Task: inverse folding
């Protein structure tokens, strides 16, 4: 299966977590160990191998903080 | 080799958005930017920003822009379009701007059938100034100036802008969409793209109303605010196509 890579721009992410319920697999979560300069906890992907690259998280992100790539 | 599945649109600048966490403006900005890039219109576009949270929109869209006085964005856009008919001109206005102080300007831009595109963001509140009641605030909705909720006997029922503008003979395209979840975001993008395509084809006045969440102004989490849009707003403001008379002039 193709390998996907999800990167969250932790500087830009405001931790609104709109992406968390948008993910059909439920593999996005708040990264409580990281705090960005604005004081927000950004999100992270908890199971990159399961990601299908549907990009629904990226589509709903108001700050365009999610980038998705696929190894081909 | 890697293939990019999704990345920030080049129709947006690198300036970080100044909106609150979970604000729908960011999603709608993206849809406008992506539509302009996909239609190949970005380099030929002029943004007319309004007054409100989106006052700095010209900083975020990667094209030329100007900012108009409160509610007057359609009048400024018409001026630009009539003197530069080869440019794509759009206004980006909130409900406090378009549905309140700017009602005369939007009605007469539609009435003349001016060939501009209007993105109307309806979040049922004045976000920038501290969450005051707007003409679009729902009955019963609490705001800083309606602490007991909007009362129908005193303040009437919310203004239905898309329905109102669709009765204007020279308006070309009016559609109401929402961005509370991904399927609706896809539909909203289709509508926004069509509104720009109409202008490129010289079809006349196009307006897309987008129901949006203002989590901070409403005092809700972004996820709850998206649910409020889906359940409460969309039931008073029916989504759908109100007018489509796409005939090139």
Result:
């Amino acid at each position: 299966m193709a390998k996907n890579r999800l990167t969250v721009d932790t500087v830009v992410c405001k931790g609104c977590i709109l992406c968390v319920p948008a993910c059909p697999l439920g593999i996005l979560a708040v990264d409580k160990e990281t705090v960005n300069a604005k004081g927000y906890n950004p999100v992270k992907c908890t199971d990159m191998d399961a990601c299908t690259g549907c990009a629904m998280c990226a589509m709903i992100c108001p700050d365009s903080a999610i980038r998705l790539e696929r190894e081909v | 080799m890697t293939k990019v599945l999704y990345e920030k649109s080049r129709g947006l600048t690198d300036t970080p958005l100044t909106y609150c966490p979970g604000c729908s403006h960011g999603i709608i900005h993206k849809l406008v930017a992506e539509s302009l890039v996909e239609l190949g219109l970005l380099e030929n576009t002029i943004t007319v920003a309004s007054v409100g949270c989106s006052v700095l929109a010209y900083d975020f869209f990667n094209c030329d822009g100007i900012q108009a006085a409160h509610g007057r964005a359609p009048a400024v856009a018409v001026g630009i379009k009539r003197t530069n008919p080869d440019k794509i001109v759009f206004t980006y206005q909130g409900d406090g701007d378009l549905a309140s102080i700017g009602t005369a300007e939007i009605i007469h831009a539609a009435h003349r059938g001016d060939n501009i595109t209007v993105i109307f963001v309806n979040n049922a509140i004045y976000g920038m100034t501290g969450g005051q009641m707007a003409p679009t605030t729902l009955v019963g909705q609490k705001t800083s100036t309606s602490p007991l909720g909007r009362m129908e006997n005193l303040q009437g029922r919310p203004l239905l802008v898309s329905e109102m503008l669709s009765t204007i003979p020279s308006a070309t395209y009016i559609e109401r969409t929402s961005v509370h979840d991904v399927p609706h975001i896809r539909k909203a993008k289709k509508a926004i793209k069509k509104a720009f395509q109409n202008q490129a084809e010289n079809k006349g006045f196009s307006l897309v109303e987008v129901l949006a969440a203002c989590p901070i102004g409403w005092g809700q989490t972004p996820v709850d605010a998206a649910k409020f849009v889906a359940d409460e707003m969309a039931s008073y403001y029916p989504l759908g196509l109100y007018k489509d008379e796409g005939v090139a002039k």
